[in-house]
C-alpha cells in the first residue's frame, strides 16, 4: 500500500485538539507520509478532500461519528479508502468495525492495509454509516452539547437520554416498504445501516455493516416509563423482540409525517421528513483489523 495520506482531525472533538501531535507521531512511526490539512470545522472536510484527492492514496479521519459523517459524501465521490482514528465520544463506527480505541493500535490497523468494503445508508441524498432516526434521538442530539460531551464523555448519552425520555410524546408516522404501508404512533423510528449507535446500542441483534439491508425499529410506547425496561436490552439489540417495538428490514424505506420532522444521521441533524432511505452496498473501503 502506498503511504501518502491526507489526515483530517476534528479539533473540536473531545480528544482531537489535545491529541493531534500524538496522532501524527503514531502515523509517521507507521511510515505514513502525511498531509495534515486543517479546516475551520468538519463541514469543510469535503473541500479539503477534493483539493488533495490526486496527491494522496488514502484519507485518515480522527474524530467521532459526526466527523466521519462529514467526510463520507466526498469519500464516495473520490473513491479514496478511509482510515479511522477514534477520537470522538461514542465512536460507534469504530466499534462496529472492531477498530481499537488505542491510537497506536488504530494506526497499526491502517498501516496493515486490510480493506473492507462496507455499505452506507442514504436518506434524502445524505449518506450515513450507522443510524438515521427521528423522534427521541433528535431531541437527545439537540441537547447533547459539546460541553456536555466533554464533561461526561460516553455517559453524556445516558444522562441526556434519561432527561429527554420523561418528556417524550408519541407522534404519528407512516412507514412504507416496497410491499406494505404501516401507520404508527411512536416516540422514535431508527433506521440502521451499521450495528452500533448512540454510544454502543445495537440496532438489531444480527445487524452488520455489510449485510446490504436496513434495519428499522419503531418504539411504540404510550408512557415514558415503558422505555426503561427496554434500555438494557438495547445494548444487544434485543429490544426489537419487545411487544411495544416494531422491527422491519428492507433495502428501501419511506417515512411520512404530518409535518416535517428533523432526522439525525450519525449524530447530526441533516434532513427532514418526508424521507426516502436506501442502502448503498459496498460503497466505501475502510481499513479494518486483520
UniProtKB/TrEMBL annotation:
Under the heading Pfam families, the entry gives:
DAGK_cat, YegS_C
Q: Which InterPro entries match?
A: ATP-NAD_kinase_N, Diacylglycerol/lipid_kinase, Diacylglycerol_kinase_cat_dom, Lipid_Phosphate_FormReg, NAD/diacylglycerol_kinase_sf, YegS/DAGK_C
Sequence ranges assigned to domain DAGKc in this UniProt record: 1-127
Q: Name one GO cellular component term.
A: plasma membrane
GO molecular-function annotation terms?
Answer: ATP binding; kinase activity; metal ion binding
- Superkingdom in the source lineage: Bacteria
Q: Which terms are listed as keywords in the entry? A: ATP-binding, Kinase, Lipid biosynthesis, Lipid metabolism, Magnesium, Metal-binding, Nucleotide-binding, Phospholipid biosynthesis, Phospholipid metabolism, Transferase
Coiled-coil blocks: none
Task: Kindly list the cofactors needed.
Answer: Mg(2+)
Q: Its GO biological process terms?
A: phospholipid biosynthetic process
> What family is this protein classified in?
Belongs to the diacylglycerol/lipid kinase family.
- From the Swiss-Prot or TrEMBL record, give the protein name: Lipid kinase
Q: Which organism is it from?
A: Fischerella muscicola CCMEE 5323
Amino acid at each position: 500500500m502506498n503511504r501518502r495520506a491526507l489526515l483530517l482531525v476534528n479539533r473540536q472533538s473531545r480528544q482531537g485538539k489535545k491529541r493531534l501531535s500524538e496522532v501524527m507521531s503514531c502515523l509517521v512511526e507507521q511510515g505514513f507520509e502525511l498531509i495534515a490539512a486543517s479546516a475551520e470545522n468538519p463541514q469543510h472536510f469535503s473541500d479539503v478532500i477534493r483539493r488533495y484527492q490526486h496527491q494522496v492514496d488514502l484519507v485518515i479521519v480522527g474524530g467521532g461519528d459526526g466527523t466521519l459523517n462529514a467526510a463520507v459524501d466526498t469519500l464516495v465521490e473520490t473513491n479514496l479508502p478511509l482510515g479511522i482514528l477514534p477520537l470522538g465520544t461514542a465512536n460507534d463506527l469504530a466499534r462496529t468495525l472492531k477498530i481499537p480505541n488505542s491510537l497506536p493500535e488504530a494506526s497499526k490497523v491502517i498501516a496493515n492495509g486490510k480493506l473492507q468494503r462496507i455499505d452506507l445508508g442514504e436518506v434524502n441524498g445524505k449518506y450515513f454509516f450507522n443510524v438515521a432516526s427521528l423522534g427521541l434521538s433528535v431531541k437527545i442530539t439537540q441537547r447533547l452539547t459539546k460541553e456536555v460531551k466533554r464533561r461526561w464523555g460516553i455517559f453524556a448519552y445516558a444522562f441526556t437520554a434519561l432527561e429527554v425520555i420523561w418528556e417524550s410524546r408519541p407522534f404519528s408516522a407512516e412507514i412504507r416498504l416496497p410491499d406494505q404501508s404501516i401507520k404508527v404512533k411512536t416516540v422514535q423510528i431508527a433506521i440502521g445501516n451499521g450495528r452500533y449507535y448512540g454510544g454502543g446500542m445495537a440496532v438489531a441483534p444480527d445487524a452488520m455493516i455489510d449485510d446490504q439491508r436496513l434495519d428499522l425499529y419503531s418504539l411504540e410506547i404510550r408512557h415514558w416509563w415503558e422505555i426503561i425496561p427496554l434500555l438494557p436490552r438495547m445494548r444487544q439489540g434485543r429490544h426489537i423482540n419487545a411487544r411495544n417495538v416494531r422491527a422491519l428490514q428492507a433495502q428501501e424505506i419511506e417515512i411520512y409525517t404530518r409535518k416535517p420532522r428533523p432526522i439525525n444521521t450519525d449524530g447530526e441533524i441533516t434532513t427532514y421528513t418526508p424521507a426516502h432511505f436506501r442502502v448503498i452496498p459496498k460503497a466505501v473501503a475502510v481499513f479494518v483489523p486483520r
